[in-house]
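Q: Please design a sequence for this.
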């Protein structure tokens, strides 16, 4: 029987939460429930049959995104979702037994891609209240550290790391690639993209899956020093960006009003929901993203299952004890979610505030 590589034999298949047909409000994947800009949709609808028959050309898109980010095209690499950028970095910088440092709790894909390179994941626990563990990361750096991932703001916690702390990590590990995952950038505005090209080991990734409402189109960008991006292009498939993503990029970047209005709504609704949950006695962490992490303690499973039974999916986070992650939809959707949650909680009269 043929055998896959040793490092893959030890891995398990990863699934994003399975779709339950009864769920009609998905608040478990940090997608936009609003959808994309009408201008983007109009552009996709206008594509003609001959264009679909051609291999897509990434270069024009890289010029657009570079201008948008204030970078050179040679410093940007369009990816099939931010996921692909993470994968390429792992393949490019991690040899077997090299070390990748991540902060836990973390987004799942870092570890999966590192494992496929037979690299070792060094997990640095977040500080109390999930704050960024800068000292822990500095202590974890060894001569084998080849990649450090900082998710800012973090998923699943929503917590932001300070720019000065990120710069300290970059300086402390000049021989390691440092990936700053800014998937939720649009909801907070904090970035180190201005340092791309100046700091040789810095990479920044962004995605169109969140604030732009284009998760299904699969589009992200990886920015870094031109020399390093040039090396990454060696292992990139030439047609990794599909024609829909490439054709709608200009409209997506240009319709800033759409993104701004959506982000403002999400922030308002998020803070409203946070206030409501806290009034009920459920702790929430301050979030700079399109989701909230909330502590439900021993009610966690009852809430998760009860909400699902009513058609609403939340995300279980066993890595954050007693917590569920709730993506923020429209105000109306979140009012529905809160009403269902209140009903579930009311079913347990003996229940007392968990924290
Ligand atoms: N990074 C983080 C922190 C994320 O939360 C996600 C998606 N949930 C991604 C990367 C991947 O995004 P994409 O859809 O662009 O692959």
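A: Design:
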């Amino acid at each position: 029987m043929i055998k896959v590589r040793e490092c893959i034999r030890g891995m398990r298949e990863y699934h994003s939460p399975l779709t339950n047909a009864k769920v009609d409000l998905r608040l478990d994947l940090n997608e936009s429930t609003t959808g994309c800009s009408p201008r983007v949709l109009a552009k996709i609808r206008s594509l003609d049959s001959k264009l679909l028959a051609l291999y897509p050309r990434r270069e024009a898109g890289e010029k657009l995104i570079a201008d948008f980010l204030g970078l050179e095209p040679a410093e940007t690499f369009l990816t099939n979702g931010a996921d692909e950028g993470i994968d390429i970095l792992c393949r490019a910088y991690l040899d077997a037994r090299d070390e990748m440092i991540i902060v836990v709790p973390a987004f799942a894909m870092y570890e999966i891609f590192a494992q496929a390179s037979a690299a070792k994941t060094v997990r640095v626990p977040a500080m109390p209240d999930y704050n960024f563990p800068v000292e822990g990361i500095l202590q974890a750096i060894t001569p084998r550290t080849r990649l450090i991932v900082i998710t800012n703001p973090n998923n699943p916690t929503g917590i932001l790391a300070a720019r000065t702390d990120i710069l300290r990590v970059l300086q402390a590990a000049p021989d390691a690639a440092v990936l700053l995952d800014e998937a939720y950038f649009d909801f907070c505005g904090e970035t180190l993209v201005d340092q791309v090209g100046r700091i040789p080991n810095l990479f920044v990734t962004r995605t169109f899956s969140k604030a732009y409402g284009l998760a299904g189109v699969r589009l992200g960008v990886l920015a870094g020093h031109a020399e390093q991006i040039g090396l990454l292009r060696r292992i990139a498939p030439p047609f990794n960006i599909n024609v829909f993503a490439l054709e709608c990029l200009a409209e997506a970047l240009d319709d800033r009003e759409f993104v701004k209005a959506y982000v403002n709504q999400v922030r308002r609704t998020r803070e409203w929901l946070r206030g409501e949950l806290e009034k009920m006695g459920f702790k929430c962490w301050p979030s700079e993203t399109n989701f909230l992490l909330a502590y439900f303690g021993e009610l966690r499973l009852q809430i998760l299952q009860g909400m699902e039974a009513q058609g609403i999916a939340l995300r279980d986070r066993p890595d954050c004890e007693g917590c569920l992650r709730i993506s923020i939809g429209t105000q109306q959707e979140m009012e529905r979610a809160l009403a269902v949650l209140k009903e579930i909680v009311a079913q347990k009269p003996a229940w007392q505030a968990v924290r």
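Q: Thanks. Anything notable?
A: The mean pLDDT is 95. DSSP finds 13 helices and twelve strands in the chain.
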